[in-house]
Specification:
109 residues; alpha+beta; five-stranded mixed sheet; 5 strands; globular
């Protein structure tokens, strides 16, 4: 029994299932950022703030609403990349932001 528990603990510790890739968006192209999101389902993109020097901004960007919590949906936003200052990607937004709309949009990258 102890051996089984040890094996399960080892497998869970070695499993990359909870890992999420992180990218500096200014070092990759818009196409590469969108491809990473499409291939992995969700990634974290980070980039420097334009308003506050030295501050790094980051968020989780997703392929579609399936990667959001139940009370959220995928909405278009932009991030700066090496070749495009306004690369269109999706991230999760609260359903409250829909201002009473009955139909939740389903966008996919």
């Amino acid at each position: 029994m102890k051996r089984l528990v040890a094996v399960i603990a080892f497998v869970m510790a070695a499993s990359p299932a909870l890992a999420i890739s992180r990218y500096n968006s200014l070092t990759i192209s818009c196409q590469a950022a969108r491809a990473a999101i499409r291939n992995e389902g969700a990634v974290i993109l980070r980039y420097p703030s334009k308003r506050v020097p030295g501050m790094t901004l980051f968020d989780r960007y997703i392929r579609n609403s399936n990667y959001c919590d139940v009370n959220k949906y995928a909405e278009w936003t932009t991030v700066p990349t090496k070749d495009n200052p306004r690369c269109r990607v999706l991230n999760c937004q609260n359903i409250d932001n829909l201002n009473g709309m009955f139909i939740i949009p389903y966008y996919s990258l």
